[in-house]
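Priority: medium. Attachment 1 of 2:
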C-alpha cells in the first residue's frame, strides 16, 4: 500500500512541476515583452518643440508686392461672448446685444481707423450655452454655438487671405468668443490651418478676455492674473458625461508660433477663466452655465474686479489693439 501511495504522489507532482515551469516561462516572456516596450517608449523621439524653440518659418508662398485697392491693411476679427451675438447680426454694425462687452472695443476701433486701414468685423453666431440641468432651457448646445462661431471666424480670415494676401490680422474675443479666438490662434500658431503654415507672421496679435481654455503662463497674462485655469480645462473630458457640452481641455500645442502675441485678461474669481478643480460634473456644468452672468464675469468694463494701470479690461484691450494697428505694415495697393 505504501509503495502505491508513493507512486501516486509522484504522479501528482509531475503535472504540478510542469505547470510551475510553464508559469515561470510565461512570466519570463512577459518580462521580456515589458522590457522591449519600455525601451521602445524611452528611445522613441519626442514631439517637435513648440513655441520659441521651433525653427523660424518663412511664408508658405511668395507674396505679391501689392494687393487689391479694397483690401484693408488690417482685419480685426471680433468675437462676442455668450448672449452677445446672433447668427444673422450685421458684422459691421452689430445690434444683437447693444450691451455686448466687445462693442466697447470694436466701436472705438472703428471710430479710430478708416476702413481701408482697419476693417472691424464682428463675427455673427449663435452665442448660446444650454444648461442641461434645466429642462426648460431651449438654447442651442454649447458645441453647436462654439462650432458655428469658429467656422464663421475662420471662414472670414480664409476668404480675406485668399483675396488680400498682404492683409494682417488682429483676433480678439470675450468669454465663449475668447475660446473661439484662442482656438483660431492655436491652430494658426501650430500650422493646423486657417492660414497656411509659414504665414503666422500675418497675425499681429490676439486679445482674450475671460478665456475658458486659459492656462496661466502659456501667453502674456496681463496682471492681475489669477492662478486658476479655464473652465474647459477644469472640466476637461466631460464630453461623454454631458451630451452637447464638450469641455475640450488644454489647447494642443498651446499657441505655438503666436504665444508671444497672445494677450490674456482674467479677473480673479471669474469661474470662466479662473476655475478650481471640480468633482461633480453636473453641478459644475450648472455653475458654468450661470457663470456668464455672475458679477465678476459681467464687470470687465469696470475696474471693480480687474484693472491694470487704472484701465478696465475693455479700455486696456482697445489701447493695445490701437497700438498694434498703428504699427502694422502698410502694404501697397494696385
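Attachment 2 of 2:
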Amino acid at each position: 500500500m505504501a509503495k502505491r501511495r508513493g507512486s501516486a504522489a509522484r504522479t501528482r507532482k509531475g503535472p504540478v512541476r510542469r505547470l510551475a515551469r510553464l508559469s515561470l516561462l510565461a512570466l519570463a516572456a512577459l518580462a521580456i515583452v515589458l522590457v522591449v516596450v519600455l525601451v521602445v517608449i524611452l528611445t522613441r523621439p519626442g514631439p517637435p518643440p513648440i513655441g520659441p524653440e521651433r525653427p523660424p518659418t518663412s511664408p508658405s508662398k511668395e507674396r505679391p508686392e501689392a494687393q487689391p485697392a479694397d483690401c484693408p491693411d488690417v482685419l480685426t476679427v471680433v468675437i462676442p461672448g455668450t448672449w452677445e451675438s446672433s447668427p444673422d447680426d450685421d458684422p459691421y454694425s452689430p445690434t444683437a446685444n447693444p450691451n455686448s462687452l466687445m462693442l466697447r472695443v470694436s466701436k472705438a476701433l472703428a471710430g479710430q481707423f478708416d476702413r481701408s486701414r482697419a476693417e472691424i468685423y464682428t463675427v455673427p453666431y449663435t452665442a448660446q450655452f444650454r444648461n442641461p440641468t434645466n429642462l426648460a432651457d431651449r438654447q442651442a448646445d454649447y458645441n453647436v454655438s462654439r462650432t458655428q462661431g469658429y467656422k464663421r471666424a475662420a471662414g472670414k480670415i480664409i476668404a480675406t487671405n485668399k483675396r488680400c494676401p498682404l492683409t494682417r490680422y488682429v483676433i480678439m474675443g470675450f468669454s465663449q468668443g475668447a475660446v473661439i479666438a484662442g482656438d483660431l490662434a492655436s491652430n494658426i500658431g501650430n500650422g493646423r490651418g486657417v492660414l497656411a503654415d509659414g504665414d503666422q507672421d500675418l497675425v499681429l496679435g490676439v486679445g482674450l478676455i475671460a478665456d475658458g481654455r486659459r492656462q496661466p503662463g502659456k501667453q502674456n497674462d496681463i496682471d492681475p492674473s489669477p492662478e486658476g485655469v479655464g473652465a474647459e480645462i477644469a472640466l476637461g473630458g466631460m464630453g461623454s458625461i454631458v451630451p452637447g457640452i464638450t469641455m475640450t481641455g488644454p489647447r494642443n500645442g498651446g499657441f505655438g508660433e503666436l504665444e508671444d502675441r497672445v494677450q490674456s485678461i482674467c479677473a480673479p474669481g471669474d469661474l470662466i477663466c479662473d476655475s478650481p478643480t471640480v468633482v461633480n460634473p453636473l453641478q459644475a456644468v450648472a455653475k458654468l452655465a450661470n457663470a456668464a452672468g455672475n458679477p465678476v464675469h459681467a464687470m470687465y468694463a469696470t475696474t471693480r474686479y480687474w484693472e491694470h494701470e487704472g484701465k478696465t479690461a475693455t479700455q486696456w484691450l482697445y489701447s493695445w489693439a490701437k497700438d498694434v494697428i498703428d504699427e502694422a505694415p502698410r502694404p501697397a495697393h494696385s
